[in-house]
Task: structure prediction
Amino acid sequence: SPQHLDILLTSLLRQRNALLGQVVVERRPGEVEDGALQAVLDRLVPGRGRLAAESSTGAVIEGTASAFTIHAEDTMVLHDARTVETLLTLLGTERTATASCVILRESALRKGSVLNFESGGYFPSHVSLLSAPRLILSLPDCRDALPDMTYPVIANDPGFFMLRNDAAAALSGGAEAAPGIAYALKALAAGYRHLCTSVVRATSLKAASRREMSDPPGINHLGTRQWQAVLASVTLLKGLN
Result:
């Protein structure tokens, strides 16, 4: 919405030691009037903001000279001015494809709203044998298990993460849509990693869309022979509900 976009961009513009470049808003036709969204862009990032069709991330990466791209849902707010600077530092490490942080999400309950603290990353949970072997990933609340730490994950929360454009170009040729779980698995199989940190935190005004997911293409992106190497390179959590 225009209101959420205003809050998100304002928090991005307040980030320390980071210059916000081109801003592209992916929108679903018919949901919000384009004029209202463009007005927010013209006011906050004049000459640098435009609207694009949904799932046009590949074209955005191809058309920018920036080394990094931030993907954020419009419900995200970066209260900590160090957030982008911290993620840039993580992406400067060798073979890191994406970086994110712990996300504090607001979930509505019957008697009001409650804040649910969640990890910004997906962890390997278990294996499904219903058909072909599939790795099941979960998004647990790991505030107590990983305080003030940076750790490797299977994939970062798609609601907010930063992407290295050169890694995306090498893995997909810039032709794919917004990087999701398939991209994350492909990056792991190619020797890249995804980092999440609890040193800084972001806030979302909605609950996580999926707390658990499987490798959707099955063994096409991450074969069982690769599980041992991949699982050895990410954080494993046990006993978290």
Notes: The mean pLDDT is 79. The two ends are 33 Å apart (CA to CA). The longest strand covers residues 96-109. Helices lie at 2-13, 34-44, 57-62, 83-91, 165-172, 181-189, 224-232.
